[in-house]
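User: Could you check the structure of this?
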Amino acid sequence: MSGANPVPSGQGQPVVAVLGTGTMGDAMGRNIASAGLGLRVWNRERATAEPLAGVGAVVCDTAAEACRGASVVLTALANEGVVADVMDQARDGLGADAVWVQSCTVSPDGSRRLGDQAADLGVAYVEAPLLGTKEPAVAGTLTVLAASSRTDVRDRVRPVLDAVGSRTVWLDEVGRPSSLKLAYNAWVLTTVEGIAESLTLAAALGVDPHLVIDVIDGSGLNSPYVQNKGPKMIDDDLDDPSFPLEAAAKDAGLITDTARAAGLHLGIAEVVRERLHRAADDGLGRADVAATYRTSRRTPA
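Assistant: Sure, the predicted structure tokens are below.
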């Protein structure tokens, strides 16, 4: 299951507190345990964290309890507001030498605000958004985009980042990993909407949508992502999310808001944002992001 290289447990290996054990937190927790690191976990709904006891995790009732004795705290939560609230709840459990690794997708300014919160909490801060969804999280092959104002923490968090990912890209300033993550996600979400529109157009014109995927295959524009998402759209196999649509809609809002703050109008991203929010309003938030294909693209009668 894990793509991590197992490391014998022993002195010097960090104990990791994972706060938030949804799809990504659960997968990262399992790979952290597989790498031989100590693991403590907390989730707002304890039942969601309980399965990690099977890989040796200590399941805790509060965020503060999970952080007691942990040298690295990894947050895998929904958004900036939730992250800030949970870390405030964890305050009494944070050790003086703890390092906070923040993996949630937030805006660059949001990451800097969380960095200020870390300073108030008295812990080192590593911004660490992730490239990858459920499948690479389970496989331990995520790409981690990382930055910290303290270069001395890199070695301390390396065993954790190596456990959850196959590549870590260090940038030179807090805020830049989130900027890069939003630019990356702009491409991902544009690709999803592009596939959906191509398949919708083909079907409306009486062409088998499978042929769209077929002619893309082998072309210079082909990608594993197209070959994965396209057939799932056509087969309506969209209810087991690798990237939930509600999370994609949140990210689309971050992309366009951050672009506007930089004086940009990203036309495609604005349309994608509107499409994803419409799909979420239609009750598709917990389906895969590719469920945007289910939203109507018919012009009003």
